[in-house]
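Quick one: structure tokens for this chain, please?
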Amino acid sequence: MRITLFLIFALLTLLPSVSYPQDGWKAGTARTNITPEENMWMAGFASRTKPSDGILHDLWAKALVLEDAQGKRALLITTDILGFPRELSERIRQQLFDKHKLTKEQVILSSSHSHSSPVLENSLTSVYPLYDREADKIKRYTVLLERKIIDLATTALQSLQPVKLYSQNGVVRFQVNRRNNEEKNIRSLSELKGPNDYSVPVIKVQNAQSEIVAIIFGYACHPTVLTGYQWSGDYPGFAQIGLEKAFPKANAMFFQGAGADQNALPRTTVPLARQYGRELASAVERVLEDKMDELSPRLTTVYSEIDLLLSSPPDESELQNIVQTTSGYSKRWAATMLEKIKKKEVLITSYPYPVQAWMIGEQPLVTLGGEVTIEYAIKIKQIFGNHTFVMTYANDLMGYIPSLKILKEGGYEGERAQMVYGLPAKWDASIETTILNEVIRIGKKAGFPLP
């Protein structure tokens, strides 16, 4: 027995060891299951007529805490939900400050925007035909989700270990610009029209044992492949499952890019969702196995909120006409606006919009709130370089964020979507300039390099 133990010890001493400097990166990870415990109304599609009826795969919230050589920390939370409404986001971030002294600039609350996730309180509730019992379920789930995310962050903060960070872009091409290509004709099209951004941003977190402990990856495409009544993370959920199977020590954490006008097409079947998930996971695996850029242990975080102006709302006669001539969410929206006017409530004329910039070593990351269309990512990369990562649906989900071109064209993303989100009017024509100017300002403040 002594000889056997001696031999084991001797062999262990011969194994190569990786020594990470104590003044390098540290990271902590955690995950928690956020699948609802009861059937309840699902988010994303106004066409659904009943609550959920099962689970395709579980929904998750995952956390990554980064600490640089100077002790500066940042927390990324990714979730398989439609998005964080402002009230919930504010409560979570306030608790993170009270408990862990993490400011808004140090926290990102990211959502995949899965349309097979639960409705949250104060988020698009006018879209769904909810009655009291369903509303109570939504309130209970929202409270539970809030508590789970705070506990998740605490667990991640308690698990810091020395790591190295690497970043690089991959590519996959299943996103389709839904404004420029008709879905009903998608199978017969021989040429797809843009604009598009096919990049797959990836950050690898590797511990001292050379094990990958976290994979941060994104893609700009609506998770609307599945339209049924089973909980799932849609194609990003399948991608995360595939990556965690390939890298068992890792948390695979998906973030949504500027995919508000991008769909995975064709769609509507589980095999298609699995296919897109496999394609995305394969693109990420290729990046992880290829040459990646190591990131220096320096972290800079900047956050701001800017006033996005709204255009003039419809007058009372226009609203009455909408009530009389339309149905569904348009009618409910107009009726709600008329009720506000009747009560002499003051309609908002602007919205506090979150913009964020992180510099993770040499890797620039921009986050924007809302459902951001693809042209923003394209223009941000034109400003700061194609290596810039763009994350949207972050910190607040208040509506669609159309480019000026889309705003002028109208349609769902440019005009009608404000009804879904309960805004009193569409955005003012200054929206694109206002957002991009703020991205430039805080990007420079965070140390983004200019090409």
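The first strand starts at residue 25 and ends at 33.
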